[in-house]
């Protein structure tokens, strides 16, 4: 009781029991602290008694010395060649494909390559099939913890002990994945763009942990936290207002540049290149945003690899300023914005054929920051060479 009010075993125990340190309160504080019987545990000098210190485990049996959590037992993923999944076409904009379905075939084979090693899982709040990743189910079922009924059977040989973790709870999936990564294994979190906000604070803490542990020489880099955000803001033909929110990107890019990466591939081949990159990466948070609906394809695999490696570039085939200065720069990032910007370019070139247009696509969002602020950022000279110094830019 403090000042006549109940504190212990009551809601006030999580408040401020007393802030004004009167003599009476000091006496109460002393009595309270002595109730923990410090003489039982500590020597007169304040050190932990040797016989108690001996109770702690030794070596790698200590939680803080477990080799798993320091990246000492991390193994690289066995990776198929992403080039083998290329969507082929003769001319840009003549082929339609579902980017994440193509990605799903690649992830299926990543899963297959790593089943024996038990080194890779896919996590999602009951949205992997909706996001067109269902091919992974052909090689691995879901982890099953509830009652298993006959009507649940889809592939009995794969059921109940799979590497796919699904539950309609974004924060549970995030927690599962973080724990999995912290033991040195690899994973991917697939979610609707609008609902990844459920884990904002959890992402915050993991990003801060990654930033801090980069400064500890005895910690080795762990596999990256990889998000795939689809069912995105641009294509909510039937869900409408409730499913429109691209704000997670705003949230992510406020964090430290040394751990944050954001990718906006505009077609399937670019998504394959980005996916291979993020799965191989270490100690980052990678956010990939890609639509799941049928969409036009623009770059061959060779072109996609070069473009994704640079992160930003001029698409000469969509521009008509070759050999000179443009009158205007049309720029975009993301699949639907790319389609719309190309449509605008097409209209302008029909109506104003003398207008010189430079078309720029950004796949690595962080290239738009200065080199001094992000390791992927462009230098001033590189930025000016792409966007010019004095021409209007419509982004």
What would you say about this model in short?
With 395 residues, this protein is α/β, with parallel strands linked by helices. It is built from 11 helices and 12 strands. Helix 8 packs across helix 9.
Q: Termini, distance in Å?
A: 64 Å
**Range of helix content:** 25-40%
Strand order of the largest sheet: 3-2-4-5-7-6
On the 0 to 100 scale, the average pLDDT is 92
Kindly name the structural category: alpha/beta
Low-confidence stretches: none
The total strand number stands at 12
Beta-strand level of the residues, as a percent range?
A: 5-15%
Work out the radius of gyration: 27 Å
Number of helices: 11
- Written as H for each helix and E for each strand, in order along the chain, the element string is HHHEHEEHEHEHEHEEHEEHEHE
Outline type: elongated
The largest sheet, given as strand count, sense and whether it forms a barrel, is: 6 strands, parallel
